[in-house]
C-alpha cells in the first residue's frame, strides 16, 4: 500500500524526481527520453529506483519514538555518472548514492555463475572473467550517515553552493556539515533559551543562498526570517538581516501568531528574492528590503472565517511548502481539497487546480477550480464548507527548467506538464 | 420628556448594533476567536506560544518501562529467524509495545487544550 508522500524534489536537471514517504521509503522517477517512436510518452516519468532510506527507531533513553518518515530530500549536483541525494528523518541525515549497473563479470574461476563456490581441486585451467551486458540495474547505497547531532526534530536540509557543505535545521538549532565528515558538525545557530519556560519561538525552515555560500536564512514560528552571514562569526546567533512585516496591533487575535508561522522558505533561483509560506498566504521578499514583503499572494483567504474549527481539528498547524518555477516568474503552493494554486508574478493572474483522479483524466487539460465564499454558489464552484480538509497538498515541486510540476496528494503523486501543441 | 428619553435609548441601541456589525465586517478572525473562547474558556490564560511549542518539541514521546520494552524486543528477536522480513509479530498475552506496534499518530492538540 502506498504510503503518504512527505517530500518531493526534482534534481538539478529535472530528469530525476525523488519522493520520500511516511514509511521511510524513497522512490525516484526518471524522465523518459523523447523519441520519435513513442511521441505520446514525451517526457513521462517512470520509476527508476526504490529503496528504504530510514527505519523506525526507538530512543529508549528518552522514551522517544523516532519516526522513519522522510522529512526532506535534497539532491547534490551531479559530478559523475552516479547520482547523490541527502534524505533525512527527524534525527538522522543520510547520503545515498544511486548508480547504474549494466554490465556484469562472467567466467569467474572460483565460483559458478549462480554464485556457488567451485571445488578448488576440480579447477584445471585459468580464465579471465569478461564483462557482459546485463539488464540495467539501479542500485542505491548509503554512503554517509550523519547522526546524533540533533536533539530536536530536523525540519530542513539544504546543500550549500560550494557543493561541499550542507546545513540541517531542527526546532532550535542549525548545524553545518561537510559532506565527507560524519562524526562532526558545526553548530551555527542556537536559539534554545537557558530556561525552556522562556521559549517563545522555534525554527521552522532554513535554506542556503543559491550562489553566496556564506549566506543562509531561517524562518520562525513567529513569522520572521533571519538572514545570516557565516563570515561574521562561528555562531550566527546575531542575524545580518531581519525580515518582518509590521502587524496592525488592533487586528491581533488569538490566531495571529499561529497563522503567521512560516512553514517554508525558498530563495528564488536568481538569489535576489526569497518566498515564505504562512498559513493563509505566500509572500515574496526582496533581500534588500527587510521591513515588508514586495508581493503577497492570498492562497485561501476564505479560511480566515473558519479558523476556530481549523484550530480544533489541528489543520491550522499544517505545514504547506511553496516553490518557484525555473525563471522565478511563477510560484506554486498547495491548499485543501487537493487544490493547488499557481501565481504568475508578472501578470498577477492566479489559478486554482485540482489533483485528483475523479476530476481529471490522464492527458486531459486541467480545469480551473473556484471556491465560493458566500452567497450564491455558481455551477462548478465548491463552497468552503464542502472542502475536504483531509485532502491537503503540502508538497509540490517545479522542474528547474520546464513547465513540469509534481504535486503530492496524500499518497498519490501527480505530474503535470504544459500541453503539447 | 419621556419621549426624549425613549429616543435616546433607541439611539444607543442602534449604535450598539452598528458596532457589532462593524466588528463582524472588519475582523472574521475576532469572531472566530470569540467562538473559541466560548468553547475553551481557560485557553489563552497562559501564553499561547509555549503550549504549541512545547507540544511540538515533545513529539514522539511515549512513556513506558524501558526494561519491559527491551525484554519484549529480545523475545521477538529470538522467535524470528534472522533472514525473515520485518513482519508485525503477534503479541499475545503480554502487551509490551515494540517498535512495530507503536502507533504512528501525531498527538492532537485538542486533548491538551481541554486538559488545560
Describe this structure in words.
- The complex is a heterodimer of chains A (421) and B (116).
- Chain A has a domain at 1-99 and 139-147.
- Helices cover 3% and strands 43% of the residues of chain A.
- Chain A contains 2 helices and 31 strands.
- In chain A, the strands form 9 sheets. A 4-stranded antiparallel β-sheet of chain A has the order 1-2-3-4, with no helix packed on it. A 4-stranded antiparallel β-sheet of chain A has the order 7-8-9-10, with no helix packed on it. In chain A, strands 11-12-13-14 form a 4-stranded antiparallel β-sheet, with no helix packed on it.
- Chain B has 116 residues and is mainly α.
- Chain B has a domain at 16-59.
- Mean pLDDT of chain B is 61; it is low at 1-17, 81-93 and 106-116.
- Classes of the chains: A mainly beta (421), B mainly alpha (116).
Strand content of chain A: 35-45%
Fraction of residues in β-strands of chain B: under 5%
- What average pLDDT do the residues of chain B reach? 61
Helical run tally of chain B:
5
What is the first-to-last residue Cα distance of chain A? 37 Å
Helix content of chain B: 55-70%
Measured between the Cα atoms of the first and last residue of chain B, the distance is 54 Å
Q: Nearest-angstrom radius of gyration of chain B?
A: 29 Å
Keywords (chain B): Cell cycle, Cell division, Cytoplasm, Mitosis, Phosphoprotein, Protein phosphatase inhibitor
GO biological process, one term (chain B): cell division
Function (chain B): Protein phosphatase inhibitor that specifically inhibits protein phosphatase 2A (PP2A) during mitosis.
Protein name (chain B): cAMP-regulated phosphoprotein 19a
